[in-house]
Design goal:
single chain, alpha/beta, 12 strands, globular
Amino acid sequence: MPQPISEQKVVIVGASSGIGRAAALEFARRGASVVVAARTVSALDSLVAEITEQGGIALAVPTDVAEPDQVRALGERAESAFGRIDTWVNAAAVAVWGRIEDISDAEFERVMRVNFLGQVYGVHVALPALRRAGGGVIIGISSVEGIRAVPLHGPYTASKWALRALYDSLRMELAQEGSPIAVTTILPASIDTPFFEHSRSKIGSMPKPPPPLYAPELVAEAIVQAAEHPTREIPVGGSAIGFYMGQRMSPALTDAVMSIRRFGKETMTTDRPDNGSDNVDAPMEGPGQVHGNYPGHVLRRSVITSLLARTPRPGELLAGVVNRLHSTSSGNGSGSAGSSSAGSGAAGSGDAGSGSAQSKAVRTE
């Protein structure tokens, strides 16, 4: 059983902006000690300052998730500072918008390295650390695009499908060994974060999230809920159910609908020209922010998300029974199989910077 949030030591990779930043603030608000990682130093500085001003405890570790050595150093620094890791959140991501034939090999490789391999590196670091702590939770941020592909977002969509497969495989392997480590995949719908302003555009204009949009705090609440009461997957936003249903009931029909420009392209592009700046290869400097610049209505509640985050499905209950049986038969609840030294770095949608903390906050270079 995971520790209460107020007693947890949490690593959040991709914490400089958007969902990762919102999650760090929510964990700290509920009393957890947080280690925040990303590439943008100034954004991490402002995040640590905000947390400590509110009485929280934070440590910032500048990290690029695309570099496994940096992810390993992040894990080592977190354990050194707080003694253990209870929850590891992989939230870093970058994106390139455009037709697949217009996106270069190097851009595909970069998106996959940050979004997918960055989370692989995080898992490799988190697993031995969580075993040393006697158990815990790995939370991976995928997307509804990991359920249903969309046009003009090929590299990002591919990375999110890969992440769902990664966490499904990991979940089963841990159950086979009776490990006390849980794995939750978060599947956000359209969220009002700076992600779209930070993306690279090859479509002739600024991209935008298709409506309806949800507040990033909703995703943060789902992440914190999973850290204490993990479930298999949590879709965030009622529109996520549409992605599930379309893919399950008639993927070909959904292909046809999304091939109509009005639905598949115009809902994801603006009339604003692209400003030419993005965080794909290098961090975007600035203080960092949770919210994006979406001018329309943003939903701040989702009954479906609240229900699914708190209600185990029958299959999850059965998987839990299998896990406990394996744990009992092996006589080793710590699930020592595959343990190794701590892992490495952080980057992407939230970058990695620096903070400040001695009694309340820690700054590390």
